[in-house]
Design goal:
It holds the Pfam family DEAD. This protein is of the alpha/beta class. The chain is built from 32 helices and 20 strands.
């Protein structure tokens, strides 16, 4: 009997297609006026793609497996140098056998194989991966893979068994019974071998199970790494072919080194020479590196030169900074084989000017398949494997033959720092390479890296370029109490003034004070704006674009009041900085927003620091206190760049921190990673852990009421069965643009003035099988933003909608 890999694609007549297109256009028409030109173009492209879709018959299982094997073999022709012969053989054999279990009668009947006994009723189905894993013996694998050990066999069958994340509740006797009833005869027929047997005892050789009842003994890291390699690459090649692609990698830059050549040409064209950091990283392309250098020394170019055309992941702490680096690589250095991967990159791809004629949805899917030579991303996208959840092995496997760049490691919280350290150790053990490039690298991080297996001059090389940096960009002064409003206003008469507050509340209050002074007419008014994370997404985007435009305009003068969100995410350069005191790492990031490009040498204070009260709930109290106590040694005079590193090294001295909560939190997180059992977490749980999802998505009531019909139309479009995924993504993004996130401090209670219910469609029939859940709550908190003036306080903490400010 001929067996198939999946169901056939339903064939539609031209009349049926036209009918569906009419329905799509009718619902899209309801929101046309709120769509951008690029969004309309993306939707038109999606409809045209649907029109040109041809019928796809059922692919035979043999053809499907051959395509995956060919995909793997083609991959190893390019990247084979990173793998042993045994590793390559195990991966290819896993590709060859992983779906064999689909020949069972139950599966074939389910996908509509007419050759199967379609009249028979089946009460249950055992997943095909489990059947595939009992379809091969140790001797059979040994005949295919020379020097295959029992350990290799256990790793192999575990990778095949778990190649999908399925409910794992069957024991070997149940699997044997199912095989004898529904599988064995078809298996014999498929192989044309009457002696083919089922090895149900293989279930007892699995490294671990995926259920709540099995007791999984923790396996050694080196065993898990071998398993992750086979499972991860198997998933990579399977996903690639199942998505309709032939090659697992979009392109390779290993031999041509196009990006490196383009950087060289750019430097030559602009009469630029490589500096010491760029030369150092060029000369150490085969080493793991930790490089410390002041802002403005070209760390990005140095890191890209170090990557040397090998597959690379450039990670940054924030989406905005990821977008900026992506654009820089693509536009400044004219490199097309770069992609962007973070939770907002789908919306970014919708702009056709960034992706040419390629569908935004397809571009995003290729990014998720980790297919590009260079990916700019946030760390949560690739370091998920540290939790050893099923489905995350593809990241570890891909990083084995890649280089990883970690930009500004000190910007992360303790658990993310621990995940990075733990993950870099695994990457290094598997054969991948890493480079940490940062303006500051606290000594405590070096100590923790050593404690958990990453030792300087053994596993990586450390180089600090800040010690020789004699540039003076800043002159600090220090005061106690609130930021001096009169000084801020005076400075803003002819300068760009940046104010950074520790909380949104204090930023809003300061904005109100200055706004009221200007509004009274007592002083000459100048430009003033407020930026923080409690603006809805579309307004925040406008503000971010405006602050960068303001920063670059040499003739501009005025005030921007902000919070920590500008510390590392935006490339801005102001003349003067007024800031509330923070921990030293945060403070030095803030300094980088003032006189960033050393436009002048200060002859008086250009950074004014105010030590305020009530900061314990924002920053670690021990680090904050040490930062305040040591600050006095660096105020009242020009600050040389190398002294910044000296300052942070004194605050983060390992010996002085070993008993603090800061040190213990990172150490505890690292210990937890060591203790995590394989399959202890689900992939969904890992996403929550990594993103620290203690927040709720809200839409302010006045925004909701102004757009109620549009939102309702969008929800109906999202839940229409005929709408394609890429169109649905565009429409979902339109609603998402009207939202923001609020932190949750009590997981059992929503924030004040936030409704329990989520918004849903009103009054129209939903024909989508399962209504898409946006999980957005309405909030009665006051929200204000004037689009024309680009002004307002955003979402207020306790004010309800009946109060008016602007």
């Amino acid at each position: 009997m001929e067996c198939y890999a999946k169901s056939a694609t339903k064939s539609l007549s031209d009349n049926e297609k036209n009918e569906i297109i009419e329905k799509i256009n009718s619902v899209i028409e309801e929101v046309q006026d709120k769509l951008t030109l690029s969004e309309k173009t993306a939707i038109d492209n999606s409809i045209n793609e649907f029109i040109n879709t041809t019928e796809k018959g059922q692919v035979t299982l043999k053809q499907h497996l051959e395509e995956i094997v060919i995909c793997a073999e083609n991959f190893f022709e390019i990247y084979g140098r990173y793998f042993t012969e045994k590793e390559k053989s195990l991966v290819i054999e896993a590709c060859r056998i992983h779906d064999i279990g689909k020949v069972n009668r139950v599966f074939q009947a389910k996908i509509g194989n007419r050759n199967s006994n379609s009249d028979e009723k089946f009460n249950y189905e055992i997943p095909h991966g489990y059947l595939s894993a009992v379809s091969i013996s140790k001797d059979e694998l040994s005949s295919l893979v020379p020097d295959c050990t029992l350990e290799d066999f256990k790793i192999f069958i575990t990778a095949v068994y778990h190649h999908h994340d399925r409910e794992d509740k069957w024991e070997s006797a149940e699997i044997k019974q199912y095989c004898n009833k529904y599988y064995l005869d078809n298996l014999k027929d498929y192989y044309k071998n009457e002696n083919k047997k089922i090895m149900s005892a293989n279930v007892n050789k699995l490294l671990f199970r995926n259920n709540k009842t099995s007791v999984n003994l923790r396996i050694k890291n080196e065993i898990w790494e071998k398993y992750a390699l086979i499972k991860g690459l198997l998933n990579k090649f399977d996903y690639t072919v199942s998505s309709g692609y032939e090659e697992a990698e979009v392109a390779s830059d290993i031999d041509d080194k196009i990006l490196v050549k383009n950087i060289y040409e750019y430097f030559k064209l602009h009469n630029m020479k490589f500096n010491s950091i760029q030369i150092y990283m060029k000369n150490n392309i085969n080493k793991n590196l930790v490089v410390v250098a002041p802002t403005g020394m070209g760390k990005t170019e140095a890191a890209l030169i170090w990557a040397d055309g090998e597959k690379c992941f450039y990670t940054l702490p924030y989406m905005v900074s990821s977008n900026a680096i992506y654009d820089r690589i693509k536009r400044t250095y004219n490199y097309g084989n770069v992609t962007l991967l973070h939770s907002g990159s789908m919306q970014y791809f919708i702009d056709e000017s960034k992706r040419g004629d390629e569908s935004a949805y397809n571009a995003y899917q290729r990014s998720k398949l980790l297919s590009f030579p260079l990916t700019v991303c946030t760390v949560d996208q690739i370091f998920k494997f540290v939790y050893k959840a099923l489905g995350t092995e593809i990241f570890a496997a891909t990083l084995k033959y890649s280089k990883v760049i970690i930009d500004e490691i000190q910007s992360y919280n303790s658990e993310i720092i621990a995940a990075i350290i733990y993950g870099l150790k695994i990457i290094s053990d598997m054969g991948g390479h890493f480079a940490i490039i940062t303006a500051t690298f606290p000594p405590v991080l070096k100590s923790l890296m050593e404690k958990y297996g990453l030792i300087e001059n053994v596993d990586y090389e450390y180089k600090d370029f800040s010690t020789s940096a004699g540039i003076v960009r800043h002159w600090l002064d220090e005061d106690y109490g609130d930021i001096d409003v009169d000084k801020v206003i005076k400075s803003a008469k002819n300068k760009k003034v940046l104010v950074i507050c520790n909380t949104i509340g204090s930023a809003q209050k300061l904005y109100e004070k200055i706004y009221d002074i200007y509004d009274s007419g007592l002083v000459e008014e100048t430009e003033i704006h407020l930026l923080h994370s409690h603006f809805i997404k579309c307004h925040r985007r406008i503000l971010e674009e405006n602050i960068m435009r303001f920063s670059k305009d040499e003739l501009s003068a005025g005030i921007w009041i902000t919070t920590q969100i500008v510390e590392a995410s935006l490339d801005i350069d102001f003349d003067v900085l007024y800031t509330e005191m923070s921990t030293v790492d945060s403070l030095l990031q803030r300094l980088g927003r003032c006189n960033r490009h050393a436009r002048y040498i200060p002859t008086e204070a250009n950074v004014h620091i105010y030590v305020t009260k009530n900061i314990d709930y924002i920053y670690d109290k021990d680090i904050y206190k040490r930062s305040v106590d040591i600050l006095k040694d660096y105020t009242g005079r020009p600050l040389v760049e190398r002294e910044k590193n000296e300052y942070i090294n004194r605050v983060y001295c390992t010996e002085d921190l070993i008993d603090t909560a800061y040190y213990k939190n990172i150490e505890s997180a690292l210990e937890n990673f060591k203790k995590i059992n394989q399959a202890e977490y689900s992939k969904a749980e890992v996403d929550k852990q990594f993103r620290d999802i203690n927040s709720v998505t809200v839409i302010p009531d006045n925004i909701y009421n102004q757009n109620i019909d549009f939102i309702d139309n969008c929800l109906n479009i999202i839940n229409n069965r005929y709408i394609k995924k890429d169109i649905r993504s565009i429409i979902m993004s339109k609603i998402s643009d009207m939202t923001l996130s609020l932190p949750i401090y009590n997981r059992y209670k929503l924030p004040e003035l936030v409704d329990e219910c989520v918004i849903k469609t009103r009054g129209k029939d939903i024909d989508y099988i399962k209504q898409v859940e946006m999980n957005i709550h309405r909030t009665r908190r006051m929200y204000e933003f004037d689009m024309e003036k680009c002004m307002g306080r955003g979402l207020m903490k306790k004010e309800a909608q009946n109060s008016i400010f602007i």
